[in-house]
Amino acid sequence: MREILAAIAFFFTLWVMYKLLFGNKDELIECIKFWFTPDIVSMFRGNYWEDHWAEFKLFIWLGSAAAVAYGVYHL
């Protein structure tokens, strides 16, 4: 039962944080592209800080959902 509640909390948190951080799927896809682009390439393209911000948003998005699921599981 704990696993089911943790999964529900995980996906609900993913959905809420998606709406807060990204707004639409195009911005999420752009963040994922930045994630796979090396930082040195982003620096030469002039997108260094946009790259870091995009990676930070992905970290917050996935990390918050994982933290909530962990908390629900061990509650």
Task: Give a written overview of the molecule.
The model has no long low-confidence stretch (mean pLDDT 95). The chain is mostly helical. It is built from four helices and no strands. The chain has one domain (2-73).
Helicity range: over 70%
Number of domains: 1
How big is the Rg? 15 Å
- List unreliable stretches of 5+ residues: none
Secondary structure tally, helices: 4
Q: Could you give the distance between the termini?
A: 12 Å
What descriptors fit this protein?
75 residues, mainly alpha, 0% strand, elongated
Summarize the structure.
With 75 residues, the protein is mainly alpha-helical. Helices cover 87% and strands 0% of the residues.
Topology of this protein?
Elements: H1 2-21, H2 25-36, H3 39-45, H4 48-73
